[in-house]
Design brief:
The complex is a heterodimer of chains A (266) and B (155).
Chain A: H1 6-23, H2 26-107, E1 113-119, E2 128-131, E3 144-149, E4 152-162, E5 167-171, E6 178-184, E7 188-193, E8 199-206, E9 216-219, E10 231-240, E11 246-253, E12 262-265
Antiparallel strand pairs in A: 1-2, 1-12, 2-5, 3-4, 3-12, 4-5, 6-7, 6-9, 7-8, 8-11, 9-10, 10-11
Chain B: H1 2-20, H2 27-39, H3 41-58, H4 65-80, H5 89-115, H6 133-147
Helix pairs in contact in B: 1-3, 2-3, 2-4, 2-6, 3-4, 4-5
Classes of the chains: A alpha+beta (266), B mainly alpha (155).
Chain lengths: 266, 155
Amino acid sequence: MYKKNPTALLSFYLVISILILSFNLNPSIKAARDFLFYMVISPYSKIDSAIFSVNKFGNNIKELVDAHQEILNLKNENKQLLTDLLKLKMFEVENKRLTELLNYKRNIRRKVSIARIIAKPSQQYYKTLVIDRGSEDGLQENKAVYGFYKNRFGIIGQVTDISKNTSQILLITNRISKIPGRILPANVDGIVVGNETNELEMSWIPNDAEIKIGDEVVSSSASDIFPTGISIGMIVSITQTGHLPFKSAKVRATIPAFQLTDVFIE
Amino acid sequence: MKKILFYLTSIIIIIFLEILFSRISVLGLIFVIFIGLYRGSASGCSIGFIIGLVDGIFSASTFGIFSFSYAVIGYVAGRISKRIDEENPLAQIIIVFLGILLNKVVSMILEMIFTANKGLFYIGWTTIFIVLTPLFFVIFKKWWFKWFKRLNVER
């Protein structure tokens, strides 16, 4: 009957709707609404929660991988920074040393130039050094070479072989090195001979000379190469030979040449 | 009996989809118009009334408004099916658009009458989904043919 008369059916629905509206059933259907929402949303929220968990797990793995990569990058960066820091420290030490050298060079009255030690041959440890100055720099043979170590200035040797850009220094600790020395304050002369250790041998000291351990040995005026009064070392022991009119002494060199990086050349 | 089961299943699916995907909240209305166009005024207003009631439960608006407006829209869709070509996608889009407008107007008036609230005429951007009306119609048809052999158009 209703299919034949849809207008009547519509009127019926409209009347019902108006009745529903008139009675304001909103508070009454709230419980039904909550229940239905729970029924519909509950499984959905569980699925959503599962998807969220999987997604979160994926994100966690991604974050872990990213963090690992970041750690590797930071480690590399740290290595680079440590290397740079080391370089900076080396530069700082070098700068300090060069500043000291320059200050010292200004204070000494002699006209000297600075050369860098470029080789310390292992078999020639107490014998020779090689420096980075040669004939092109105006260097000549038999020039005195000095060193500066812990605020002390002293003789370390003399220039021997010269090539175009490098030169060899014969150290005073070499056995073939013989230089005239004077013991202060006794003003007694002798010959300082190398011993291929840091201790030199000073011989030809008159038996009656009043010397003692701790006296300073400087270059003597008898030397053609070394100017007078430059420190060579300090007496550490004295040897008496009863049957000879001379005695000898062990002298510790003022400058340990093997610890130097730069030298002064006359 | 089969028809009741079909409508019941369809309504449950549509309401479920509307709740889960709030952006296609016009799906119920499109289904009402589809039934109105292809099954006539009686079926249109009946399904409109039922879907309106269920939508009223889940929506924030006053209970009873959707049942009223959806029933009217289902009835009107059944009436105008005699005058238009319901297979034309453009016609489907226009009818659904007009249906949404009618729903908004009727809802606003009823809100003003029964709740003394000033109605707000607002068509959300979600109504852009009406351009998908032909697609929804095709889906509804396929769904119908899963249950029945032919879609009787009562003219």
